[in-house]
Amino acid sequence: MHFITYLAAVAGLSGLITAIPTPDGQLETSPGLRLIKTSEKDPGVWVTEEDKIAKYRAKKINFIDVTDIKDPDTLSRLSGASADDAARLAAVVYPTTVSHQTQANALIANANVAGPQSWLKTLSNFYNRYYRSSYGTQSSTWLFNQVKSIAASNPTITFSQFTHSYNQPSIIVRIPGSSPSLVIVGAHFDSTGGSATARGPGADDNGSGVVVLLETLRVLAAAKFAPKNTMEFHFYSGEEGGLLGSADVWRSYKSAGKSVLAFVNTDMAGYSPSGKISVYNDYADTGLTAYVRRIVSAYIGTSTQDTCGYGCSDHASAYSNGFPAAYVCDEPDATSDPYIHSDRD
């Protein structure tokens, strides 16, 4: 597991402390069905919850569940309209060099593998973490209790559960800063084995990303890390069902007018034949992505890159709601983990 290298990339974000029309068919809802899009040009198709997993996710067909998305700007972006990169870049100017390395390296030195190995074993021991199953609910409860325990050494850190229309709350952890502007890292914690009832340990996808953030949180809490800009850790539910949890969270952040300087999504960190972090290019903010590459270069060395396509992970939810987002993964798609979305992950 290359979680130490991911911790370096996340810790490097401390440098930021300075610094479509609705598809025609959507007008008539279909009871018990969900409307999903597999591309910008796809007008949408109504499917069952089980079909989303068995006929799309298990066959590596990315999609976004747009049933509950009503914001016209968000729908427009999901259907290919400009995401206004120029406006994003004007709003947030990212550093051209990496700073705070002495502070970050001291934090990185306190990371270890014992916690992540233990947490990953617990996560993967759930029969699955499917967002509509009782196991999914149980995994959310376990994770919420775990983050509270991990961060208990810093009483200024707060925790909340973000509820959805299904019974698997997302989790938000906040390290308060002197500024309300937000720097956010996130990972989804649900899993699938290819159907609603299949065994789905989800060790790489995305237990590995979750434990990266948990260890980062532990290190920052123990150090009583006090950022200028407020830092949040997001643990999303329902990603395998079409980015459901992150869509709800980012919709609420847009509605509340929150100031977000950066969101970095971590989806899979445990399988890397190349031994390098992969920074993906599509459905992401170009300025933030370039800055993430600088961080990787400063701490790790050369990164790989790729595109992951429409709706591949939760950064797409932030991006479609107008927030600057980037995505880091363990490997380019062609050499990525062949066992995800199965009982062998």
Describe the structure.
The chain is an alpha/beta fold. It is built from eleven helices and eleven strands. The chain has helices at 3-11, 49-56, 72-78, 85-91, 101-108, 114-125, 134-150, 203-222, 244-256, 286-299, 315-320, and strands at residues 34-37, 45-47, 64-65, 158-162, 170-175, 179-188, 229-236, 260-266, 278-280, 304-306, 325-329. The strands form two sheets. An eight-stranded mixed beta sheet has the order 4-5-7-6-8-11-9-10, sandwiched between helices. Strands 2-1-3 form a three-stranded antiparallel beta sheet. Helix 10 (286-299) links the parallel strand 9 and strand 10. Helix 1 (3-11) packs across helix 8 (203-222). The longest helix has 20 residues, at 203-222.
